[in-house]
Automatic annotation (TrEMBL), chain A:
GO BP annotations listed: acetoin catabolic process; epigenetic regulation of gene expression
Similarity annotation: Belongs to the histone deacetylase family.
Keywords, in A-Z order: Acetoin catabolism
PANTHER family with a match to the protein in the record: HISTONE DEACETYLASE HDAC1 (PTHR10625:SF10), HISTONE DEACETYLASE HDAC1-RELATED (PTHR10625)
UniProt pathway annotation: Ketone degradation; acetoin degradation
The keyword Glycosyltransferase appears for this protein: no
Organism: Aquibacillus halophilus
Name under which the protein is recorded: Acetoin utilization protein AcuC
Cross-referenced CDD domains: HDAC_AcuC_like
UniProtKB/TrEMBL annotation, chain B:
Pfam families reported for this sequence: CBS
InterPro entries: ACT-like_dom_sf, CBS_dom, CBS_dom_sf, Diverse_CBS-Domain
UniProt xrefs under Gene3D superfamilies: CBS-domain
Superkingdom classification of source: Bacteria
Gene source species: Aquibacillus halophilus
SMART domains from the UniProt entry: CBS
Keywords, in A-Z order: CBS domain
PANTHER family attached to this UniProt entry: CBS DOMAIN-CONTAINING PROTEIN, CBS DOMAIN-CONTAINING PROTEIN CBSX3, MITOCHONDRIAL
Sequence ranges assigned to domain CBS in this UniProt record: 7-67, 78-137
Keyword Iron-sulfur: no
Protein name per UniProt: CBS domain-containing protein
Length: 391, 215
């Protein structure tokens, strides 16, 4: 296994300008906290950091409708009518309007495109843009904290500029619906989303029977896991599905969305993962990227609403795996804890791992794991049959 | 919701004199399970289901390909009179017909002429639309006292937060008639502010409920 891969970390302080309101749960300060943590661990240096560019209108139009882009621009200067707000999903509690929102959102997209170019022009093996992963953005509608869908735009961009086949793997606790629908009838782009079942949780979609349309049939995979799913079952579902889909689709490049909201401390979801899951997620992505794609792997951020205790640790592990193929262990740097503790409303963790007993034990564990493994079978049945008969 | 809003208007039909074999072919080719039988004025005089046709067909074990039975006219096996509905009837009434009569399809008739058809599948599709599970949303369940004016009290909280409601369902609360369960599907990824507002107004939120994982 390759260690010491040359990787790029796309970052700008301006990510923080993507801010809906002071008490909105989506807060890009988590990217700065992650960067800080990595610098204090001496795993990130200036030469690895890439400054992002802003996406152009033409690039946004690879996925979004021009009328929607225009609406976001008008919202940026507060000139959108109430009717248009409703029509385009702007001005809601989830995606409120804020000044210069178009610029802030275009930067996140540009950052993902910067990561793509770095890898596909061969300047780095892997690239990480923690400011991206906004998977709920629709062609002509904002939703779920997402204005522009950088993942969907980046995949269109890869298709057009590099003509490569893309596997998109989404481990955010919410269904990666925006990206899924963008490539639902496309057999050159395969999407795989693991998420908490949509029975209660937003956006409600992501059932196993959503497999794609027309020539895209069999290229959308959905793995909805039950509320209160723990590490073991999460990792089992993730590993089995990722390995099998990889063997089935054999992509040229992997794009991962690394939402960190499947953690038990996340306030918006109901899963019971711990850091163990977030240590394993990048390790497997890294392994498979080298095995099948000559290393080509672009990782994005995503959800993650316990920005103090969960997201910086989870995201720092992605970078550590990218550059050293290992995870951080032991205690967090004191320097980092004392710097950020002053701002945090909760006590910051002292270790890279979660302590036993971070959540109350789940009485229905056996039942939940059994249900998840049945679900996994159902989701992979089509692929398994197809591979069996093609041999 | 009215029948005319959910009915299919292009209906595949058959004349009473047509042979059963033709019905068999139509059912198979179009992946449908019911054929209204109409006269030359498009009046519904009978109906056949795939089961009726199968009962009239030779066994699959029989080698005979061109069997005599299938040459009989369809009118010999059709069911009549036919239960029909009007385009202005309510969708709920069809659900009651399906439940009580134990069949799965009704022709829609206006001025004695066939104008549409509604099947069990159309009905289920409509129900999915009514529950709102087909659009982006989160689900919130609230237990409320069964009293007049409670619904506007609750919905006002959603309105204040500028959160779009995609659907509302009202269930009985178990067997206790003093309470109801309100189920909302709302277009937000972050139901927490609303849940806090609901709790502040002393409503009991049944879901989301994280007590199972709380410290």
């Amino acid at each position: 296994m390759t260690t010491n891969c040359h990787s790029a970390f796309v970052y700008s302080k301006d990510f923080e300008k993507y801010r809906f309101s002071a008490d909105h749960p989506f807060n890009q300060i988590r990217v700065a906290m992650t960067k800080d943590l990595l610098e204090m661990e001496n795993t990130l240096n200036q030469s690895q950091i890439l400054m992002p560019r802003k996406a152009t209108d033409e690039e946004l139009m690879l996925f979004h409708d021009p009328s929607y882009i225009d609406a976001v621009k008008r919202a940026s200067v507060d000139e959108l009518t109430d009717d248009d707000e409703l029509k385009y999903g702007l001005g809601t509690e989830d995606t409120p309007i804020f000044p210069n929102m178009h610029d802030a959102a275009s930067l996140l997209v540009g950052a993902t495109l910067t990561a793509v170019d770095s890898v596909l022009e061969g300047k780095s093996k892997h690239a990480l843009n923690l400011g991206g992963g906004l998977h709920h953005g629709f062609e002509r509608k904002a939703s779920g904290f997402c204005i522009y869908n950088d993942g969907a735009i980046a995949i269109k961009y890869i298709r057009e500029k590099y003509n490569l086949r893309v596997l998109y793997v989404d481990t955010d606790a919410h269904h990666g619906d925006g990206v899924q629908w963008a490539f639902y009838d496309d057999s050159e782009v395969c999407t795989l989303s693991i998420h908490e079942t949509g029975r209660y949780l937003f956006p409600g979609t992501g059932n196993t029977n959503e497999r794609g349309l027309k020539s895209g049939y069999g290229y959308s995979f959905n793995l909805p896991i039950d509320a209160f799913t723990e590490d073991e079952s999460f990792i089992d579902v993730y590993e089995s599905s990722f390995r099998e889909v990889m063997e089935y689709f054999k992509p040229d490049v992997i794009v991962t969305q690394n939402g960190a909201d499947a953690h038990c401390l996340d306030p918006l979801t109901h899963l019971s993962s711990t850091m163990k899951t977030f240590e394993y997620i990048p390790l497997l992505a890294h392994e498979l990227a080298h095995k099948y794609c000559n290393g080509k792997w672009i990782a994005l951020g995503g959800g993650g609403y316990d920005i103090w205790r969960v997201v910086p640790r989870a995201w720092a592990q992605i970078w550590n795996v990218m550059t050293t193929n290992s995870i951080f262990t032991g205690n967090l740097p004191m320097e980092w804890i004392s710097k950020w503790q002053t701002e945090a409303p909760v006590k910051l963790p002292d270790s890279w791992h979660d302590h036993e007993g971070i959540y109350k034990s789940i009485p229905r564990k056996a039942e939940i794991s059994e249900k998840n493994s049945k679900m996994l079978e159902k989701a992979l049945q089509f692929t398994r049959n197809k591979m069996k008969f093609s041999k | 919701m009215l029948v005319k809003e959910i009915m299919k208007t292009s209906v595949i039909t058959l004349s009473p004199e047509a042979p059963i074999s033709e019905a068999l072919k139509l059912l198979t080719d179009n992946h449908i399970r019911h054929l209204p039988i109409v006269d030359e004025d498009n009046r519904v005089i009978g109906i056949v289901s795939d089961r009726d046709v199968r009962d009239a067909s030779p066994s699959i074990f029989s080698k005979q390909v061109d069997s005599e039975e299938l040459k009989n006219p369809i009118k010999s096996i059709m069911t009549h009179p036919v239960v029909t509905v009007h385009p202005l009837d309510f969708v709920e009434e069809i659900a009651a017909i399906f439940y009580e009569e134990e069949f799965a399809c009704v022709p829609v008739v206006q001025n004695d002429r066939l104008v549409g058809i509604v099947t069990e599948k159309d009905m289920l599709y409509t129900l999915i639309q009514l529950t709102g599970t087909h659009v982006q949303s989160s689900q919130i369940e609230i237990k409320v006292p069964n009293k007049i004016g409670i619904l506007p009290e609750v919905t006002a909280i959603f309105g204040k937060r500028k959160v779009q409601i995609t659907s509302v369902l009202i269930y009985p609360y178990k067997t206790d008639s003093h309470f109801k369960v309100l189920v909302f599907r709302v277009q937000t990824m972050n139901p927490l502010p609303i849940i806090n507002d609901l709790k502040a107004e002393n409503f009991e939120v049944l879901w989301p409920n994280t007590s199972e994982s709380e410290l």
